[in-house]
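Q: Predict the bound structure with adenosine-5'-triphosphate.
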Amino acid sequence: MKSQKKYAVSVRNLSYRYLKNQPEVLRNISINFPLHKITAIVGPNGSGKTTLLKHFNGLFMAQNGEVFVNGQIVNKKTRTTVQKQIGIVFQNPDEQIFYPKVYDDVAFGPRNMKLSIAEIQERVAQAGKLAQISHLMDRITFNLSFGEKKKVAIAGILAMQPEILVLDEPTIGIDPWSKGHFISLINSFSPEKTVIVITHDFEIMKSVDNIILLKNGEVEGEYIDFNSFYQEEFVS
Ligand SMILES: Nc1ncnc2c1ncn2[C@@H]1O[C@H](COP(=O)(O)OP(=O)(O)OP(=O)(O)O)[C@@H](O)[C@H]1O
Ligand SMILES: [Mg+2]
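A: Predicted complex:
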């Protein structure tokens, strides 16, 4: 089997359906996500973006086709290793936040990595600063606002310092005062890390290296700049 090592994530002929008697929501998708670049996945509601990314860390297993992370196929055997290399911030923070205290939620990843207490504290503090939640560390997660929860979920993934960072709608619910910060933050990870961002936000799309357009579970286009995407989809 070909290893696809030069890509951070490589999707080969991936198809997926939720229910047996319903149509496929991913239809024969093949995409390569280059190392150390920022790639945006865009497309209408229901086009399959979130379903696609749930295959990247083995949360969903390919029904047809294959997904490779750092050249390694994602399957039940490799899933734990893959999950150390790729960090996914989900669209809905309630799917990601489990601990009652913010500090513990952000510390979950570093604790799992068996780091020292000092290293855990350092990572939590740093991730908290980057995600602008330092002031929330002692709060109860359940009564945070949606935007605050979104930032906590981002901090939790940043604290693991994954080499591949995947964000599903990172700016949804983020106020306009913080949004510029988060867009700069995403951009600051490249070229050191690979970033894959699902977004409806034109400002993010303008800042990335590549745009992949999904429609109806299929790859409809790939663009190297926002203008060509915008012209094709919204002008001509
Ligand atoms: N658990 C599920 N069971 C059945 N169908 C589902 C399930 N989850 C999602 N779907 C369907 O699969 C399709 C793709 O959904 P998905 O969440 O991947 O879209 P999306 O591109 O992320 O949309 P959005 O922009 O709204 O986040 C949609 O038609 C959705 O209704
Ligand atoms: Mg989605």
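A: Residues 9 and 156 are 21 Å apart (CA to CA).
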